[in-house]
Specification:
The chain contains eight helices and 18 strands. The protein has helices spanning 13-23, 59-68, 116-119, 195-203, 304-314, 318-324, 371-380, 416-425, and strands at residues 73-82, 126-135, 139-145, 150-156, 159-164, 169-174, 210-220, 223-232, 239-247, 253-260, 268-276, 294-297, 339-343, 350-354, 381-386, 389-394, 400-404, 409-412. A hairpin with a 2-residue loop joins β7 and β8 (223-232).
């Protein structure tokens, strides 16, 4: 019997918010710096073999179960398939270690194929298999398994190692590497790579603009699970629904599926094919560079204005990062904007960005970006007009961006029409 639950009401939003804050605890923080919409999906191997008969549970109870979960040890295999409507990102090399990155001397792994910022950006498109392991907040490992190679990111205590077997290159950083402070080294965390990390982000939006229900059961990686369904109540969002399979026994999210409002197959769908909640062997998190490997150290302080600017960009955190980013005077980045104004609320929020003096960011021109990046942007562009004037909309299945010819930028997980309407209303 598949349990059902009525839509989440406005009166329950406060209780949901409390559970949501608890559910957002640190769990498996191994992730990568990347684009806001870059995420992940699952192949048919995770199809349920039959819906298990579980006791009925409400949405509030299921969220509370997720929040109360204290599982910190696990290992397993995650199947990944992403269809955001993006060209392949493999040739771009990422924002951190590839064609966009400053080369050398930035203490950041620029130019190293093992730099996490660049390598793991490839998860933003295509199909991938990950092998993950975690033992509390101080030990995690994520490996990307390729046809004839493997890329691993290992966090063990006060050190982070990344290793690319294809190029035999390693990247290393440790405590207080950048600012000399006594803090633990952590891997980049901007791009979630586990169902829990993705579910936490989705639950942050669970307010009076959101419907949250329990809709049936499933079996994922041999585990019985409840299906938590999150849907926008507003029209104009590119997000149709989010489904999270939650382990019925321990409350750990096992699978995350995001379907766009335009329909078709899932745009983001990440989950376990195998999972074990026992403690991984301590040797899982040991790493020594193989003989002959090129090692790039990321523990040297950043030098020069350009390095400071790059660091400021890397450390931005959502809207606050755009407002308070730090950087060198000769670097143009998110910190150069006078602010980010948010139009609307909930799932149809749109960010409006302008630079000081009323001049916004302008669309990239020939020579401003690497050829691979220009080809990528050209594939997404669509000319539009309205009361605001004219501009270009860069589209994916989830996140769309309108860049007007006068330089103002409108961005959000909304339709192209919603962006044009917001631009018209701002005039």
């Amino acid at each position: 019997m598949a349990p059902n639950d009525s839509a989440q009401t406005t009166d329950e939003a406060e209780d949901l918010a409390a559970g949501r804050r608890k559910a957002a605890r640190y769990f498996v923080p191994v992730a990568v710096a990347g684009v806001a919409a870059a995420t992940i999906g699952l192949v048919p191997a995770l199809a349920a073999s039959g819906d298990p008969d579980l006791p009925k549970i409400s949405a509030q109870e299921l969220i509370a179960k997720m929040a109360a979960s204290d599982t910190q040890q696990l290992s397993g295999t995650v199947k990944v398939n992403t269809d955001l409507g993006l060209p392949s990102l493999a040739g771009l090399g990422g924002l951190g270690g590839g064609s966009f990155a400053p080369k050398g001397g930035n203490g950041d792994g620029g130019g190293s194929s093992a730099s996490p910022d660049g390598k793991l950006m490839e998860l933003a498109s295509g199909s991938h298999t990950l092998r993950i392991a975690a033992d509390g907040p101080d030990k995690q490992k994520v490996s990307i398994l390729e046809d004839a190679a493997e890329y691993s990111l290992i966090h063990n205590g006060n050190e982070v190692w990344a290793y690319d077997s294809a190029s035999n290159e390693a990247f290393h950083t440790k405590d207080g590497a950048r600012d000399g402070k006594d803090r633990k080294a952590t891997p980049p965390k901007d791009l979630p790579t586990t169902p829990k990390a993705l579910a936490d982000e989705a639950l942050k939006a669970a307010d009076d603009t959101t419907s949250v229900t329990v809709d049936g059961t499933a079996q994922v990686a041999g585990r019985d699970a409840y299906q938590l369904v999150i849907k926008p109540k507003q029209s104009g969002s590119t997000i149709g629904s989010i489904k999270v399979a939650v382990d019925a026994k321990n409350g750990v999210p096992l699978k995350f599926t995001l379907t766009p409002s335009s329909g078709g197959k899932a745009a983001i769908d990440v989950g376990f094919t195998k999972v074990d909640f026992s403690r991984p062997a301590a040797s899982t998190f040991d790493f020594t560079p193989p003989k002959g490997a090129k090692v790039t150290e990321g523990d040297e302080p950043a030098k020069g204005h350009a390095a400071k600017g790059h660091e400021g960009f890397k450390n931005h955190k959502g809207i606050e990062g755009f407002k308070n980013g730090k950087g060198g005077e000769d670097v143009k980045g998110p910190h150069d904007f006078q602010g980010l104004n948010v139009i609307g609320k909930g799932w149809t929020s749109i960010a409006k960005i302008e630079t000081p003096g009323g001049k916004g960011a302008t669309a990239p021109k020939d020579g401003d970006v690497p050829p691979e990046a220009k080809k990528f942007l050209d594939a997404l562009g669509d000319q539009v007009e309205g009361k605001f004037g004219s501009g270009t909309v860069f589209t994916t299945r989830l996140v769309n961006v309108l860049m007007t010819d006068d330089g103002t930028v409108y961005a959000g997980a909304v339709t192209k029409d919603a962006l044009v309407q917001a631009a018209n209303a701002s005039k």
